[in-house]
Structures are given as C-alpha cells and as structure tokens.
Design brief:
With about 900 residues, the chain is α+β, with helices and mostly antiparallel strands. Helix content is about 40%, strand content about 20%. The longest helix is centred in the middle third of the chain and has 34 residues.
C-alpha cells in the first residue's frame, strides 16, 4: 500500500502566495507533558480584492484556540484536517490571526519541528518542519519578522535561545523563567530556531571590517566544554574570509551555534542560531581525526556563509534549493581550498562527486540540480542538488574568472538582498555583470544526467599543429551543454608546452575550451612535437570524458603532469585499466599477475620526494569497489573484491621495503594540526594499511603498537581499521580496548561501530547483526544508525552477499525507521536504487525487498517516493 494520496508537486505550477505574513509573535510554554505554542500573526492578502480562503499548513498539532482580529472563531468558521487549517472567509485588508496549539516534542522521533535531544529542546524546520510547531504559510517565499518568547523551568532549562537578539528576560514565581528574542530581518519559516536546555557556552568575539564587535557563542552539553575551540576558530576564519573574498559582513550582534546529539542533517543555518549535529562541532586531538577537523571547519563555514547565500537572499520555492546549497557548497569548498591544500581538496570533492553523484545520475532518483517535481521535499537534499550544484557554480567562475564571478555576486546581492529568488535570477546577475550570454547555461539546471564528451587528438608533424575534436553524447530529448574544458599539452620531457590557438596570438600553459556545440574542433599551432594531452584539468566540468590512452601514457602523466588533479586522475585511470584486465583474467580462470608497469608507476610515486604527503597518499589509494562497479554494465561483486584485494596485496609485497621506510620516516612526527603533520599522518597510515594487507606477525605488531601508543584519534582509528581485518587475537583485543576507552563518548563510539561495518572479512554481516543488539546501539539516533548501517551498505562485497540476507536486514531497518524517522528511512532505502545493475539473482533478491517495503501499510511519503521510482524505473 502507498501513503494516502501521494501527490507530486511541480515547478511549473508555482504561483505567488495569496497571503503574506508580515510579522509573527511566538510564545512557547515548554512543559514535560505538553508544550503550548501561542502564535499571533499579522497577515496581508496579496491583493485587496481577493476572496480566496486562507489555508495554513500544520501537522501533528492540537488546535486549542483560534482568534481572528481578536474574535474567537467557532468550529463552523474553519476546517482542520491532518495537514491544513482552512479559514474560508478572511478580511481583504491586513488582519491578525492568533492560534494556540499543543505539541509533544518528547514524542517527536522524526526530529523535524520541535523535538527533544538528550533532554534539551531544539528545532529543525528545513524544509517543512515549522508546520509541526504551529499553523503557518510554511513556504520559503513567505518572509516575516519573528519575535519569540520562551518560558521554561529554570533548573532544567537555564538556557533559552532563538533567532536574532535577546531583548528581554525575567523570572516567574513558580521556578520558571522567560527570554524574549527579536530578529530584525524578515525570514522564511524554515530558518526559525529555538533551543532550550542545560548548556555550556564557549564564547569569543569577532570584530568586523567596519569595526563592529560580534559576540560568538558555541553552546554544548557541559561535559563537552573542552571540545569547542576549533569550531570557534573556524567560525572566525570563515567570517574573515567572507569579508575578504566577497565583501560580506555579518549583520547581527551575536552569532550562536548549538551542538545537539540527535540530528538528521549535518547542520542548519537558522538566522543567527545555527543548530549543528555535534559531529561537526566537537573535537579534540584524542577524539577527532584530521578529516574530522577539516570537516568541522568546512561545515562551520558552510552554515556561516548561508547568512548571505540562503538567509539574506533565499529561495523562492524548494525547486530552487541548489540556488542556496550549490552556491554555498562552492563557497565552503573555495574556503577549504585556501585554508588547506587546493589540490587535495579538489581531489576529495571530485571523489565524492564521482562516487555518489554520478551514481545518482544513473539511478531512478536522477534529477536536474533544479528538480521539476517531488512528492517529499526531504528526498531532494541530494548530492545532485548540493555537490553537482556546486560544480555548476564553479563553472561560472571557470568561464568568468574570479573577478568576473565576484562582479556577478555583487550584482546578485545588490539586486536581491532581502528577497526570495530563483536560479534564473542568479544566472542573470552573472550574465549581466559580465555582459555575457549565458542562456545556454540554463541546461545545467534543466537537464539530468552526467554529460559525456568523446575526445580525439590528432598531431600534424608537417604543420606542427595539434587538433582536438570534442563531441558531446546527447541523449534523446536533451541539448548540448555549455562545457568549459581545461587543456594542457605535455612534451616528451614532461614539461607543459605553450598553447596558442590558430585564432589567437597569446599563449598559455592551460587553455579553456568552451564546448557549446555537439561537436567542435580546436587546433593549437606551433607545437614542436607530438604531445601528450592533459584534459579536463582541475576537473573543470562535472562530466565523463572519453579519451583513449595507452598505459604508458597514463604512467607518464602520473609521473609528470603539472596539474595535481590530472596527475592523480592518470593514476586512477591506470589502476582501473589494470583492475578490469585482471577481472577478465579472473573470470576466465586465468592466474592473476600484476602489470609491472603499474607496479613501477606506484614505486615512482613512493620514491618521489617532491610530492606533498597528502597528495601522495591520495595517489597511492586505489579506486573503491563502489566506483569500479559503477563503470560496469553489471556489477561483478565477487570479482571486483577478489581482484582489488589481489592488487593491494601484490603492491604491499612488491614494495614492502618502501612502505616500511615511509611508515617509519613519518611515524614519530609530533602531533600538531599543521598541514605538514597532517600530511605525515596520512602518508604513514596509507603505508600501514598496505603493510597490514600481508597479515603477518610483523605487520600486525606495527598496527598494535600504533594503536596502543597513539596520542591522537587519527592514528588510533587508522590502526584499529587495520586490526579489524587481521585474523588473529589482535582484532578482539583492540576492539575491546577501544570500546572500554571511549564508551562514554558517543561520537568516538560511532567510529567503533563504523570500523567494524567496513571490515572486508567474510563474517562482517554476522558482526553487524550482533552489533544491532549491542546495548550502545540506538536506531533512533541518526548518527549511530548511520555509523553502522549506512556504512555497512557501502561495503560492497559484504553488503551484496549472494544469499541476500543483508538486503533483508536493510529492509527490516527501513520499515522500523519508516515509523520512527521517515527522513532517515528514505536515505537507507536508497541503497536499493541500483538494483537493476546487478546480476539476475541479486536483482531478484533486492526486488523482493522493495516489493515488501512498498506493500507495507502506512508507508511514509519519504520512503514511498524512493521505492516507487526504483521499482518503476526502466532498465
């Protein structure tokens, strides 16, 4: 059975709201059994002669009182159903509407609206959670000024927070107290926030470029008070960067962040009061890895950057979500590139894009970055909207240059500050500010799928020219994209050749080709020798590029390309070729032998003393089984696992001495959070993982020693992830010790679950089953559920076991979460989206579970939309 009347909403059907809400005065009385929410709104009809009914959204609310212009309405004056409050007749001029509703935050396991987390109240209103707090026009193009009063028991909830500035506070005679907050900026309801609890403040300040002092406050549970300084410093760095890069200054007197334990997302940019998953706030060297530190800095920056790209200028409707998310992801990526390593960050971002977003483009949930329809909006907080959206924003900068992009941003804010706008408005600002025709660029917003470009290179020795012919593969009903492709040409000595097009006099080492047609040919002149092309440098567009290369050419690029991204990319392509050739041998029952060319190319990387450690670590990491599977028409689950394991073990044997040398050279680097120390840890831990592939007493001892002696979580977790794949007693000893050490720290304990879920040993599924029964496993906590189940579902060989038991387990979990937390349930069921790309036996097993899910009574809209699309998709 499907949910009651699941109706799709279409972008083409957008219309302006019939009413606007100019202001809302909220009063919360927080009690342990029932919370009362009193709302007083000033509502203005869009036109003075309209006679349409007022329809407000509301879910899981108990209406206790309703007044229109001070007069109590009788039940025959309005209608209430599960999702609406309808008043058929309202004044044609501005009027006041008051409601009192009852809600029960303590029973809200969906974690949207107002709910309780670890005894504290908090909110999550994006996309449509505010309707679970009170009746409202819950859509982003209705922007109101909010005043919020919170009343609660002072002992239990000494801290009461909301958006804006604190303007009044006081105490009552019954042991309760109250605080009033006023936000001077109009905002949509999805940006409303409230927090109440027993929290500790880690404070600081920031002086803006205009000289204003802003109070910075990070609120956490008291036991976490010593894990906030990195987040505070990250916030200050983000504020300064936004001033310097985009001229954007913070606009309130206070900026608050609250870390909560139960949160569906990473964080939320509520105006002046960000609510964060504690995972992206709390860190110390002994509890958080280097990646955790970088992720915290990036997410802190992301939510701060939303103050302008999302809050000051927001979305007209939810179809425009990438307007704020794609843009803000690009901004946080650019920030991280400047704070860390641009090359490392670019490679990391492309890996996510190719592994997750390209896969989504091949799935039944494929959609443009600006979707055309949805049933449940929460299902479209996707890697397409976010990460591909960021790549589309990057295309503007690639085409216009940094200065041109800044001109476009300036015009965008000049035109639209304080408004709810569209992706077209952003594109128009970019075009107008640079006097450039970007009409074809709209196809990046309208067309789903990953563009594919075939490239053919031809060298004319007589005329000393080199021509590239580029052809877009255009699926039916689509049109050619506007694609910037960055190109370099390498000579036989490995140096970049000067590039000069036949139509130009200037030369560069890298040239941007603007591919607008289905097919284009460009010719470079004065090329003295047959070059080796370096294509799509810095991953200049989110496309798949087909260009036939011999292994020798890839090895050459791997050793010499001046573009760090393409040097890494050449290694990935070479590894992929080697693995697929070995797979063919495995399938033909031939003995496996590693190509010496590839082994020697890896050796050259190992011996390259000029290569920065973090880049080297990335270059020494093979493509994942998940990514390799995406390149196949039918995923060879057992074959890919076997062959990839063989390559890793063979590389470990071939270069044992070099791996050991690198490990020892970097092992005793003192801990710091500096880039050089991080690079040492990354490189030595890659070496340790290769060494432990041999599973000898000596290599296991190295991991045991690092595990017991490490003074930081990066080294301890890396050693543990090696030990869980050993076959001796060291595994059990390490897991027990780690659990005993960290069982009181939820975020670290999440790592304990994840490390076991990613083991490649054949008993992993049985271990996951056992961990589901562990006293510390809690399906209601999204972080804990993700740490075990979402991680396990990405363990391709173990999750896609031939007997289908893991599929059955995943479906069981989805059905439990369907009731508890539909948003997380829909994420978990998405693992089945690619069921048609597996062998017939696995297809049948997954289809059985999808059918079982969709036949479940009371299925949520979230899960129904994903499963129905998956089952109905064509091969």
């Amino acid at each position: 059975m499907h949910p009651e009347n699941p109706q799709a909403i279409y972008r083409k059907d957008y219309h302006q709201p019939d009413f606007f809400i100019e202001s809302i005065d909220l009063h919360f009385s927080l009690d342990e059994d029932v919370t009362l929410v009193h709302s007083q709104m000033v509502i203005r009809p869009r036109t003075t002669n309209q006679t349409v009914p007022l329809v407000l959204q509301g879910e899981s609310l108990v209406l206790k009182n309703l007044k229109l212009n001070g007069q109590v309405l009788n039940t025959h004056d309005y209608q209430v159903d599960k999702i609406h409050l309808t008043i058929p007749t309202v004044p044609t001029q501005s009027f006041t509407l008051e409601t009192i509703v009852e809600i029960k935050p303590q029973e809200n396991t969906a974690l949207t609206g107002l709910y309780k987390s670890s005894g504290n109240y908090c909110t999550q209103c994006e996309a449509e959670g505010f309707r679970r707090i009170t009746y409202f026009l819950d859509r982003p193009d209705v922007m109101a000024r909010y005043t919020t009063t919170i009343v609660a028991d002072k002992n239990r909830y000494p801290v009461l927070l909301s958006n804006g500035n604190r303007v009044e506070y006081g105490e009552l005679t019954d042991g309760r107290h109250w605080v009033k907050w006023a936000d001077p900026f109009p905002k949509p309801s999805y940006l409303f926030a409230l927090v109440a609890g027993n929290l500790h403040c880690h404070g600081g300040k920031f002086v803006t470029r205009s000289g204003r002092e802003v109070r910075l406050e990070i609120w956490v549970e008291p036991q976490n008070h010593d894990q906030c300084e990195h987040a505070l410093q990250s916030l200050a760095k983000a504020m300064r960067w936004d001033e310097e890069r985009f001229g954007l200054e913070y606009d309130l007197d206070i900026y608050m962040i609250v870390a909560v334990s139960d949160f569906n997302m990473g964080a939320m940019e509520n105006k002046g009061l960000n609510v964060f998953n504690a995972k992206f706030v709390l860190c110390r060297p002994d509890t958080a890895t280097d990646d955790d530190y970088e992720n915290i800095e990036a997410v802190i920056a992301h939510e701060y950057f939303h103050n302008w790209t999302g809050n000051r200028v927001t979305c007209r409707d939810w179809f425009q979500l990438t307007l704020k998310e794609g843009l803000t992801v690009f901004r946080d990526q650019s920030f991280t590139e400047e704070m860390t390593s641009a090359a490392v960050k670019r490679i990391q971002d492309v890996r996510i894009l190719r592994t997750s977003q390209f896969a989504e483009d091949q799935s039944p949930m494929a959609h443009p970055i600006r979707p055309e329809s949805y049933i449940e909006m929460n299902n479209f907080y996707t890697v397409t909207v976010y990460n591909k959206g960021a790549e589309v924003i990057r295309l503007y900068q690639t085409l216009l240059g940094k200065d041109g992009f800044r001109r476009g941003m300036d015009l965008y804010f000049q035109r639209h500050d304080g408004q709810a706008v569209t992706c077209d408005d952003f594109r128009a600002a970019m075009a107008d500010a640079n006097k450039m025709d970007l009409s074809q660029f709209e196809r990046w917003y309208d067309q789903a799928g990953t563009p594919v470009v075939d490239v053919l290179g031809t060298y004319n020795a007589l005329e000393k020219t080199y021509s590239l012919t580029l052809r877009q593969q255009i699926p039916a009903n689509l049109q050619a994209w506007h694609i910037p492709i960055a190109v370099g040409l390498l000579g036989k000595n490995g140096q970049d050749l000067p590039l000069q097009l036949a139509t130009e006099t200037n030369s560069n080492r890298t040239c941007i080709i603007e591919l607008r047609e289905v097919e284009q040919t460009v010719t470079f002149v004065n090329i003295p020798e047959a070059p080796i092309p370096s294509l799509l440098r810095h991953f200049s567009a989110p496309i798949k590029l087909n260009f036939s290369r011999q292994r020798e050419e890839l090895a050459f690029l791997m050793a010499h390309d001046s573009d760090p991204f393409n040097r890494w990319e050449a290694g990935q392509q070479l590894a992929q070729q080697v693995i697929f050739d070995l797979l063919a041998d495995w399938q033909a029952d031939k003995p496996l032998q590693l190509d010496p060319l590839f082994s020697n190319a890896v050796l050259k990387i190992l011996q390259d003393t000029q290569l920065e450690g973090s880049i080297k670590a990335l270059m020494l990491t093979l493509p994942t089984e998940g990514f390799l599977g995406q390149q196949q028409a039918e995923v060879a689950v057992e074959g890919l696992f076997t062959v990839r394991q063989f390559v890793l073990q063979q590389l470990a044997q071939d270069h044992y001495t070099q791996w050991l040398t690198i490990y020892k050279a970097n092992h005793h680097t003192p801990y710091s959070n500096e880039a050089s120390a991080i690079a040492c840890r990354r490189l030595k831990n890659v070496a340790l993982h290769y060494l432990c592939r041999l599973d000898t007493a000596e290599t296991t001892a190295l991991a045991e020693q690092q595990f017991t002696q490490s003074d930081n979580m990066t080294d301890q977790q890396s050693a543990l992830s090696c030990l869980v794949n050993t076959t001796g007693t060291a595994k059990t000893i390490a897991l027990t010790r780690f659990y005993t050490q960290w069982k009181e720290n939820p975020l670290v304990l999440d790592k304990w679950f994840s490390v076991q879920a990613m083991s490649y040993l054949p008993d992993t599924f049985e271990n996951v089953q056992a961990l589901l029964q562990h006293s510390d496993f809690n399906l209601k906590n999204p972080n804990r559920a993700r740490s075990l189940l979402a991680v396990f579902s990405q363990n391709q060989a173990q999750f896609h076991r031939a007997d289908g038991l893991a599929y059955q387990l995943q479906a069981d979990i989805v059905l439990q979460l369907n009731t508890l937390n539909p948003q997380i349930a829909s994420r978990f069921v998405s693992v089945f989206n690619h069921w048609r790309r597996f062998d017939p036996a696995r297809q049948a097993l997954m289809q059985t579970q999808l059918t079982r899910i969709i036949q479940h009574p009371d299925l949520s809209k979230d899960v129904y939309e994903v499963v129905s699309k998956s089952l109905n998709a064509q091969n």
